[in-house]
Every structure is written in C-alpha cells, then in structure tokens.
C-alpha cells in the first residue's frame, strides 16, 4: 500500500480518518497530520520524533478522548429529541436487530413525557460485516435515507416497519463502516464498553443501563441536570490540516542502521 493507493475514509469524528488497503482491509486510524496511529493496537504517536511509534500514555489518551467528543460530527447522525432536548448531546450506538436496544427504545417511549434529552444515533446491525447482517443493514439504510430518520427509527420499534427505499445512495457497506469506525474510535479512547446499546455523555463517559429502566430512572440518567460541564480541550491531537489538504498517512518510523 502506498499513499497513492490507500483509501482514506473520514469518520464521524472531524479530523480523524481510517486508512484502508485497496482490498478494503482497515490498517489504522489517523489524524490530519498523520501523527496518530492505531496499527498494532491502542493509540500511538508516530513521526513526532525519530524511531518507532510511541504508545500514548493514559493521560494522552484522555486528551484525545476530550478532542474526539468535542469533534463529533453530529450532522452525520440521527438526531432524536425528547421534550425540549435539554441541551444534551448524548451519543447513542445502537443496532436494529438488538434485543437490548429494543428494550431501551421501549423504555424511552414510556418515559417520553418526562424526558428532556437529545440523543445522536449511529445505528447498525449486531452482525457487523457478516453477510447475515445485510437484511438489517438494508433497513438501517432506509431509515437513514428517510426525510425524517428520527421518526422512522422510532416508528420501526413500534410498528416494525421501515420507510420505502429512496435514492440517497447509502449502501449497506457504508452503514456498517460508519458504525464500526465510530465504535472502534470510542473503544480506543476508552469512552465505552464493547456492548450495544451504548450511550456516551458529552464528556466521554459511558452511561450504565439496567433492565426495565423506569421513567424516573431514565429522566434522572439523561436529564439536563446530569449534563457534565465540559471544558474546551487543551491539546490539539486532532488539529485540522490546511483547507484542501489531503490527510497524511502516518509517518514511517526510521529504520535502525
């Protein structure tokens, strides 16, 4: 793979990209400057100094997580508001064929009159990229392409129906990739546990869910009074490249002589 043949895919985090081989195999996450890599597992800095990639410290991972949360591209997500929205921006990672997600949606519907919360949804299938996921991913694509995807998502859980297909061009592969990349990012920066459904607060902390959550418990968990105070990130791991510039591939470590 070379810079000319690499497929660099924007993620749902502004300033963070995924690098794929021409055959579609993911190699690494990176940033605009090409100074972050996940090749080999975890987050490492590369090219900041000569030598091999250097694994980020827990403090540095926290810094990246703060920037990830500050740079979530909410415009790419399905916005679902209850009440006045509460000024909240809670990330929701869900799946259309997930029993736990169905239970959560049922509980949210029961608590709707007491909720003042906004969720930003990225949905997929529990089957991931397995061929068995295609029917579920097709349903997600129809929901995402609908003129009112939030209503389409909520209607699905009540009536088990999806909108008629449109020509928005969204493929099942894109649906799965969008979800898996964001899930991988959030897992890499230690913002989530690897389970679905997963809800994440504005400061990058996962919200613990319980079976049969009551309207009172849901209102308390997601209410405006629980919104964390988030200071602007002090570091710039995801600093944007100059306008029009192509994101750089991670720098190659210097070879030992």
Give a short summary of the structure.
The chain is of the alpha+beta class and 257 residues long. Helix 3 packs across helix 4 and helix 3 packs across helix 5.
Query: In which range does the helix fraction lie?
Result: 25-40%
**How many strands in all?**
10
Q: Taking all residues together, what is the mean pLDDT?
A: 89
- What about the largest sheet? 4 strands, mixed
Query: How many helical elements?
Result: 6
Weakly predicted, low-confidence segments:
none
How much is the radius of gyration in Å? 19 Å
Ends distance: 24 Å
Give the structural class.
alpha+beta
Globular, elongated, flat, extended or rod-shaped: what is the shape? Answer: globular
Percent strand equals: 15-25%
Q: Secondary-structure element sequence? A: EEEEEEHEEHEHHHEH
| Arrangement of strands in the largest sheet | 7-9-8-10
